[in-house]
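== Folding task for one protein ==

=== Format: two labelled lines per protein ===

==== Paired sequence and structure tokens ====
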Amino acid sequence: MVDRNLLREFSIDDEELAAAFGSALADAEHAEEDSLEHLYIADGGVDVNSIIDGTVVRVEGDEVLIDIGYKSEGIVPLDEWEDGAPPPQPGDKVAVLLEEIEDEFGLILLSKRKADRIRQWEAIVSRCKEGDIIKGTVQRKIKGGLLVNIGVNVFLPASQVDIRRPPDIGDYVGREIECMILKIDEARRNIVVSRRRMIEEQRQKLKEKLLAEIEEGQIRKGIVKNIADFGAFVDLGGIDGLLHITDMSWGRIGHPTEMVKIDDELEVMILHVDRDREKIALGLKQKERSPWTDVENKYPAGTKVRGEVVNVMSYGAFVKLEDGIEGLVHISEMSWTKRVNHPSELVSPGDEVEVVVLGINKEKQEISLGMKQALPNPWDKVAEKYPPGATVTGTVRNLTNYGAFIELEEGVDGLLHVSDMSWTRKISHANEMLKKGDELTCQVISVDQERKRIALGLKQMAEDPWETLIPGKYQPGELVKGKVTKITNFGVFVELEPELEGLLHVSELSDQKVDNPESFVKVGDDLEVRILRIDPAERKIGLSRKSAAEIAAMEAKEAASASAPRPRTELKGGMEGASGPLFSMGGTEGAEGGEAG
């Protein structure tokens, strides 16, 4: 009885089977054999196409004469005896097929080969049934599969050769294999077999047995069947387990092929079993003791060790101390002196470096390392090397709107603030006085070793002109010449000499009220102005365009009003805004004047 469900499971229909098997056995002899009807001797008579037991009479050349009890002897070609078999001898008993009684020459034609095949077929059918496991030798590759001899030739479809279809089924030619009989068609004398079905049933039994007895922590043997980027699948005997790449070695590996290859036999540890989903997690490294077990004792904080750079990232470099033990050198821990934008500026994979252990997190299996800690810190001696008041020479490394960074030595910079560049000049950006690469001599103002900061001064290299030079050169009431450099809504800045400016307040531009200073002066105009006030403490000079007589009249008026019993009136001008006093009447000092930037 044909198991139709079994054939349907493997998508093999009768038409496909007939076509494939017909192609497999499309030789002349078998075609004739397929047309035979099995007839036997009846009532002592002999019928054509019946199998008869005969006796070898003699061998003549390439023909063997057989006595089958008929009035004349039959002839069988000698080549129908298989190579290596003993040659026929007179008196030997032999089964033959009666093909024709007396041809045109009066001869009886017999076939030993066809008789043998019919007997073999009958023997196979008598002892085998669908579902049986049989053994045979692969004869050749044919269209759609393989031809396998189990006593008779049977058909093994390509899809049934293995669980995973091999790249070339021709590799099986000449091999002895075991298969399961899927279908026996006696009418067509066809047999279809499956090696895949046999393997699957065997694996199912092994799987059930394995899942029943397997436990976490066991050591099992298996064969590597497949390799992916994330790991390898290992056949434990009926079921595959996954050996993940992270469980192959305590050390770093880039791909599973560095550890295993197809058909390798491995001893693995069972890490986890999911019986419901039939999934097993395997480990290879777990068979060995973890190097992290006593890592604190082996690498205590502060220990200086050598290691190999194994990976470089934007935030740091990973250094291998031993197989399975890696630490991270953060980019901030690479150098005391160099400004590192990327770790690749200092290290590359394969480099051997000296590092210091900064800390260990055993639970997370993390070690913090430092490269700079293995070298002396130049800031440890900065205060001693650059005391306040010392004169130093450095190179302008960077310019900003608040100052310039001066490199005194590799990794040690000082800040020259814009306010410390000139006693008299008002500076908005450091590039107004300096450019990158300039060599500059400055004075150390202060050192903050803890915050790694050094304050430098350029103007301190010369005497402060506001202490003696400017007060001695410019006296209140003196008439001087200058050039307009800037106009604001509160007044006009006038350059009296290079890097020295005074403020001509709007109230001092004219006797009349001034709403818009630009209606009176323009940038670049040469003006004659009068010194109203010098304020060394505030570093300001107040200016006026009024005449000496006007100023004197105002002073007299202020003096007269000063004796009256009312609040004192102050003369304003020469400053940013109109609220501060220029001179304080009644002998009071300290009026606010213009500024010299």
